Every structure is written in structure tokens, then in C-alpha cells.
From TrEMBL:
Residues 9-246 form the ABC transporter domain. This is Putative ABC transport system ATP-binding protein. SUPFAM superfamilies: P-loop containing nucleoside triphosphate hydrolases. GO terms for cellular component: membrane protein complex; plasma membrane. CDD domains: ABC_MJ0796_LolCDE_FtsE. The lineage of its organism: Bacteria, Bacillati, Actinomycetota, Actinomycetes, Propionibacteriales. It comes from Kribbella voronezhensis.
């Protein structure tokens, strides 16, 4: 195995084409990238550049048309749905726009649900800590319908962090949050990658959110065209402005 395949999330020559014939859309056009252990990476790019597709393919939620994805050292090609589900349960957490909260369960029950499903014993003190840090300490017994959109998003974030998954995929995790809560959540994600060695991949449109990451990967027309280590909000905004005016040569 080559060293690059050791990364917890590894994409090699990943192409994703939706549809066929003249209306086929190449959403990913040969992406090779390793998300290194314990790093927090933001994925950015213009609308339609392939960010969500990259996240879905990397997480095994969508199958590439060609190329390879491996998660936690396991190549995904050829795994059946059961094996994929088990692999994700063991190693992966998600913060996606559709919150997927269970309406009949309380905040705390929602947060520990993935652990329960995986047959793991929740670390009660850590669960309490995480719920408090996303600002829902007073709401642990509420149900999702009794919460605002931003509060529901924070439950999803607490749920992703509660199990200390090796890999977390986040799609616009702070999109519905006010600035202060967003700052807390981003700091929490950054702390988790640094302190607990979690590998976090976050799609965002927000240069300030991206500045919390260790690096930013920029997509244009389904290709990685630029990478910024140690990003600042201003630096990221400048790259984005430049890229939105650029067309990738074919
Ligand atoms: N299920 C699908 N069927 C057909 N085309 C799709 C499908 N999903 C995505 N696409 C197309 O693939 C391209 C990449 O889409 P994707 O959602 O990955 O972009 P994105 O960078 O996440 O965009 P945004 O920032 O607007 O959310 C777009 O041209 C989109 O229209």
C-alpha cells in the first residue's frame, strides 16, 4: 500500500458523471486527494463546482463513475450496502443540511442515537459537555419540533461530535447559525480535529468558516484547482473571487 492510501479519506482519480448522452454532467472530473488524519479541511468553490458530490462520494453515499475512494483504510468499491453502513457506523459522523433528527426523540436521545445503533456505550459526561458547548444545555429534553432551525442544526453537530468518530463530513454546518454560535461550533470542530485526531471535511461557502480549517481545497468544474494552507478569511475570499472568474481549461 502506498503512503497516500493511509489517509483516513482517500480519493484517487474520482470522476462522477450524472446522466448520459448530451445532457450528461461531469460533477467530478478526476479528483485525487488524501484528507490526512487529524486535519480539518474546508472544501470551497463556486456553486455547481462539485463540492457536495465530492462529500457524498468521499462518504460512500454516492458511487463514483470511476476512480477509487477509501475510508478508514477500506476501499469502498465492491462493498455492499450492509458493509458500507457498518463501516460508516464505526468510523464516520455526518453533519448534513437535512438534519435527519428523529422527531419522537429528545435532544439528548438524538445525540446518542448513532452510538446506541452502533452498540456503543455513550460517554455520558462527554455527551453533556458537547450538548452544552453547542448551547443546548437547557434543551436536552426538548424534541426537534420544539427547536428553531439553528438549534436543530446544533443537535446534528452535537450528534456528530458525541461519538468522537474518526472521520466527520459536514455540509454547511454553520449555514443556519448566528455568528456567535457558528464561531463556537467551528472552534469545537477545530478542537476535535486537533485534540482527538478527528479528520474533518467541511463544505462551506463562508470564507470565515473556512478560516477555522487547517487548509482549504478549492474546486472549479469538478477539479481541485487550488489549496490554501493556514487560511485566513480575507485570503480565502480573494482566492474565491479570482476562481469565480476563471474557467478551467479543458
Ligand atoms: N443527482 C444529480 N443529477 C444530475 N446532476 C447533478 C446531480 N447532483 C448534482 N448534479 C450536478 O453536478 C454538478 C455539481 O453539483 P454539486 O451539488 O456537487 O455542486 P456544489 O458545488 O455542491 O454546488 P452548490 O454550492 O450550489 O451547493 C452541478 O452541475 C449539478 O447540477
Amino acid at each position: 500500500m502506498s503512503p497516500r492510501q493511509q489517509h483516513p479519506v482517500q480519493l484517487t482519480g474520482v470522476r462522477k458523471i450524472y446522466g448520459g448522452g448530451p445532457s450528461a454532467v461531469t460533477a467530478l472530473d478526476g479528483v485525487s486527494y488524501g484528507f490526512a488524519e487529524g486535519t480539518f479541511t474546508a472544501v470551497m468553490g463556486p456553486s455547481g463546482s462539485g463540492k457536495s458530490t465530492l462529500l457524498h462520494c468521499a462518504a460512500g453515499l454516492d458511487e463514483p463513475t470511476s476512480g477509487e475512494v477509501s475510508l478508514a483504510g477500506t476501499p469502498l468499491r465492491g462493498l455492499d450496502e450492509t458493509a458500507l453502513t457498518e463501516l460508516r457506523r464505526e468510523h464516520v459522523a455526518f453533519v448534513f443540511q437535512a438534519f435527519n433528527l428523529m422527531p419522537a426523540l429528545t435532544v439528548r436521545q438524538n445525540v446518542v442515537l448513532p452510538l446506541t445503533l452502533a452498540g456503543r456505550e455513550p460517554d455520558a459526561a462527554w455527551v453533556t459537555d458537547v450538548i452544552g458547548r453547542v448551547g443546548l444545555g437547557e434543551r436536552t429534553k426538548h424534541r426537534p419540533s420544539e427547536l428553531s432551525g439553528g438549534q436543530q442544526q446544533r443537535v446534528a453537530i452535537a450528534r456528530a461530535l458525541a461519538g468522537r468518530a474518526a472521520i466527520t463530513f459536514a455540509d454547511e454546518p454553520t449555514g443556519a447559525l448566528d455568528t456567535q454560535t457558528a464561531t463556537e461550533v467551528l472552534a469545537l470542530l477545530r478542537d476535535q480535529s486537533r485534540a482527538a485526531g478527528q479528520t474533518i471535511v467541511m463544505v462551506t461557502h463562508d470564507p470565515v468558516a473556512a478560516s477555522y480549517a487547517d487548509q482549504v481545497v478549492f474546486l472549479v468544474d469538478g477539479r481541485i484547482v487550488h489549496e490554501t494552507p493556514a487560511p485566513t478569511g480575507e485570503g480565502v475570499a480573494a482566492v474565491l473571487a479570482k476562481l469565480s472568474r476563471t474557467k478551467v481549461p479543458t
